[in-house]
């Protein structure tokens, strides 16, 4: 797996699914943060005793930052970091952890540079404010977790500038940075990991993955290695047979030049969606994407649900995300001629509804 590791992340921990990858990555950041705060001192007897009854100092009152609109999994810890849909969280107790605003950008991005820069600066300032606020309350922010594209939350994008800003804030404040690539990892953005496109001088501390990479886990920096055995552990610690599948997948991606195919096909889809939203402005808006990780907003949820249903009659299976967004998630082998079939079907449905 190391040949595909994000630059600067020299270790990997395999897991069974995206949720447990994020859950254990968060735990690994907490372990790193506490060890750093101890400054090399030995664990005290008081810490060992109090952790058994969920009290400080053994169970420190640290927090973890996430973003509005995020989705990081359905386990209890990950649900405290998830803010996309009510159905995920209802009736489950949540931890009092900070939630920062994720940029709400205007599309196309290259036509709204000034407005989007101001919005990203606003969000970055709020991230720093929350770190300061929680620190003053004695509830340090030990880490943050962020998606390159908020998929479940409605395919919300941010620019490399925003993620560079987050990296700088984390470095300056001694906060661990996790990038959740459970959805974006695997090549659908034109690179194996979307964070490879950010131009970071200092990479994220951990990057989680699952779904398209056939197995799950996270890459991490050496300094985030747990200092004792069994601190990150479970029954299977991944699925060895999936490694065989992943080897074949990565070989195929290289041999068939699928990352380049994703870029070419993604442009065909996005150009076509821009034409469709110009033709049907009362139905579609905000076409956006990276590679073939693409989305298109509808006027409301009812219209989005109807279009998704009608497309099935045309042989197209198109899901929803957010409150009114059609999400496009074709396979890496999806070609431009497939894209034309998709666009023709969407055009037909929109025309029939007109």
Describe the structure.
Helix 5 packs parallel to helix 6 and helix 8 runs parallel beside helix 10. The protein is an alpha/beta fold. The strands form three sheets. Strands 1-9-8-7-4-2-3 form a seven-stranded mixed β-sheet, with helices on both faces. It has helices spanning 18-38, 45-51, 76-79, 86-89, 113-136, 160-173, 240-255, 258-279, 301-313, 336-353; strands at 11-15, 63-67, 99-100, 141-146, 149-150, 156-157, 176-180, 206-209, 216-220, 284-290, 293-298, 319-321, 325-328. The chain contains ten helices and 13 strands. The protein is globular. The termini are far apart.
Total strands: 13
Strand proportion, as a percent range, falls in 15-25%
Q: Mind telling me the C-alpha Rg?
A: 21 Å
Order of helices and strands: EHHEHHEHEEEHEEEHHEEHEEH
Shape: globular
Work out the helicity level: 40-55%
Largest sheet: 7 strands, mixed
| Poorly predicted runs of 5 or more residues | none
Total helix count? 10
Average of the residue pLDDT scores: 97
Placed side by side, the strands forming the largest sheet appear as: 1-9-8-7-4-2-3
Distance between the termini: 49 Å
Structure classification:
alpha/beta
């Amino acid at each position: 797996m190391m040949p595909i590791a994000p630059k600067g992340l020299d270790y990997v921990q395999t897991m069974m699914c995206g949720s447990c990858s994020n859950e254990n990555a968060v735990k690994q950041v907490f372990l790193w943060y506490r060890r750093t705060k101890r400054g090399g001192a030995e664990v005290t007897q008081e810490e060992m005793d109090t952790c058994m009854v969920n009290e400080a100092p053994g169970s420190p009152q640290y927090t973890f930052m996430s973003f509005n609109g995020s989705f990081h999994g359905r386990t209890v810890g990950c649900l405290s970091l998830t803010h996309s849909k009510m159905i995920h969280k209802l009736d489950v107790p949540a931890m009092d952890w900070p939630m920062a605003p994720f940029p709400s950008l205007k599309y196309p991005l290259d036509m709204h540079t000034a407005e989007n820069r101001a919005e990203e600066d606003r969000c970055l300032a709020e991230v720093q404010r929350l770190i300061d606020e929680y620190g003053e309350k004695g509830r340090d922010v030990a880490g943050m977790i962020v998606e390159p594209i908020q998929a479940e939350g409605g395919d919300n994008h941010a620019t490399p500038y925003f993620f560079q800003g987050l990296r700088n804030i984390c470095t300056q404040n001694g906060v661990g940075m996790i990038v959740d690539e459970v959805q974006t990892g695997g090549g659908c953005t034109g690179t194996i990991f979307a964070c490879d496109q950010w131009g970071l001088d200092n990479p994220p501390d951990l990057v989680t993955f699952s779904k398209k990479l056939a197995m799950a886990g996270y890459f991490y920096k050496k300094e985030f290695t747990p200092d004792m055995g069994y601190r990150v552990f479970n029954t299977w610690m991944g699925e060895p047979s999936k490694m065989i599948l992943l080897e074949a997948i990565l070989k195929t991606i290289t041999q068939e030049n699928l990352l380049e195919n994703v870029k070419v096909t993604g442009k065909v889809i996005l150009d076509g969606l821009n034409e469709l939203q110009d033709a049907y402005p009362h139905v579609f808006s905000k076409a956006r994407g990276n590679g073939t990780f693409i989305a298109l907003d509808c006027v409301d949820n009812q219209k989005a649900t109807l279009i998704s249903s009608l497309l099935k009659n045309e042989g197209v299976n198109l899901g929803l995300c957010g409150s009114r967004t059609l999400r496009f998630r074709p396979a890496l082998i999806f070609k431009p001629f497939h894209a034309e079939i998709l666009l023709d079907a969407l055009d037909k449905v929109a025309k029939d509804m007109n």
